[in-house]
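Retro notes (design track)

What went well: tokenization of the new backbones is finally stable.
What didn't: we kept losing track of which sequence belonged to which structure.
Fix going forward: every design gets posted as structure first, then sequence, in one message. First example under the new rule, 130 residues:
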């Protein structure tokens, strides 16, 4: 069984790959359409506005994909939280481990603290019936 941290890392990696692929598609569309417009109309003056306008959008898309690193963003958020007087939360907090596991009659593994709570509930219900 895969851990939650692995699943979260895989999901983040898939998102980053998807964003890169979308950027490359955007870049190819930009180059192809500008070339077709240039060849069809002979590179007129008005095409500068199309090329630079769309190019600015493409540049922003590139910054978002390649420069906007999630770890950089998390560090900036942690710095701001510290400035506001809050301790940064550790994202990789390990779940507390339970001490003992017991095998019950039906072959199921049950944590002893769960059994203790269940037995206490059964005892309380028996007292209520008597």
């Amino acid at each position: 069984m895969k851990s939650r941290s692995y699943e979260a890392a895989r999901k983040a990696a898939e998102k980053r790959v998807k964003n890169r692929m979308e950027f490359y598609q955007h870049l190819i569309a930009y180059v192809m359409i500008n070339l077709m417009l240039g060849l069809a109309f002979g590179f007129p003056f008005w095409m500068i506005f199309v090329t630079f306008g769309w190019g600015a959008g493409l540049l922003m898309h590139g910054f978002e994909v390649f420069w906007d690193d999630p770890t950089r963003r998390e560090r900036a958020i942690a710095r701001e939280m510290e400035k506001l007087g809050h301790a940064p939360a550790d994202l990789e907090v390990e779940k507390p481990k339970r001490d003992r596991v017991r095998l019950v009659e039906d072959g199921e593994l049950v944590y002893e603290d769960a059994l203790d709570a269940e037995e206490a509930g059964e005892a309380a219900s028996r007292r209520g019936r008597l």
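Added context from the reviewer: The longest helix spans residues 4-41.
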